[in-house]
Design a protein that fits this description.
Layout lengths: L8 H12 L8 H4 L5 H8 L2 H7 L3 E4 L22 E4 L2 E4 L4 H6 L10 H6 L3 E4 L4 E4 L4 E3 L9 H7 L15 H12 L15 H8 L7 E4 L2 E4 L2 H7 L1
């Protein structure tokens, strides 16, 4: 499939970011998932957990209602004042909490982006006020500057600094399943028929978790087996 002559601004900006970061490939669902071959589309949707998990980096456009907006930071963003006050030799700086920006963004309201945020190992979020990065070990805010070598220490022992995405016990048994499902059901979809497809990647992850907490599903309904029952079934 060839790209159109004129790309939506967000896609064009994502290509620019990809090149500036030194990567050779960019995966965009609208272009990389077949929209005409329904069988191929179904098979590709079944693999979305692998797409997100094995991506080197996921670029999140946390501004704009559609793909014509562009990426904040690549294009001019709204001006925001980061307040600070100096007390003697100590300067206090107000942080711009990414949780608020991301939770209130159009991206966070869409059903299809739920597993994108949850399953990705590294996320680069271009928000309305700053850039935010989170992987499995650290999370960094553009509004807080400190040596990179100290980031893991802060992530493990220090203040939260606005950690957005969960990294622990995401797929740990039935309680975790209902938490993920509850979060997902707050999202909106253009087509009700996509409800199961847009959550399928998360279902796949529950199926591949530790045997003691592994969950299978039937048409989206969870099926839990005790470890002994699983062994007998084998």
């Amino acid at each position: 499939m060839s790209l159109p002559e004129f790309l939506p601004a967000t896609i064009a900006d994502a290509i620019y970011v990809t090149m500036r970061l030194g990567y050779n490939y960019l995966w965009v669902d609208w272009y990389c998932i077949s929209q005409k071959d329904q069988h191929a589309k179904h098979m590709q949707i079944q693999c979305m957990n692998l797409v997100h998990k094995h991506a080197v980096l996921t670029i999140v456009a946390a501004t704009g209602e559609d793909a014509t907006t562009g990426l904040s930071g690549v294009r001019p963003r709204q001006k925001n004042v980061q307040h600070s006050i100096k007390l003697g030799k100590v300067q206090l700086v107000g942080t711009m909490d990414p949780i608020k920006d991301i939770s209130e963004s159009p991206w966070n309201s869409r059903g299809w982006t739920f597993q994108e945020g949850l399953l990705s190992n590294r996320r680069l979020i271009l928000g309305p006020r700053q850039v935010y990065f989170q992987c499995q070990a650290i999370h960094c805010l553009e509004s807080i500057k400190h040596p990179l070598e100290s980031v893991p220490v802060y992530a493990e022992w220090g203040p939260n600094f606005g950690k957005v995405f969960p990294t622990e016990e995401i797929y740990d048994g039935l309680d975790a399943f209902y938490q993920r499902l509850s979060d997902y059901l707050t999202r909106s979809l253009s087509y009700e028929s996509d409800t199961l497809n847009a959550f399928n990647g998360c279902l796949k992850e529950f199926e591949t978790g530790p045997e003691s907490t592994r969950l299978f599903s039937f048409i989206g309904l969870p099926i839990s087996f005790e470890q002994g029952e699983m062994n007998r079934a084998k």
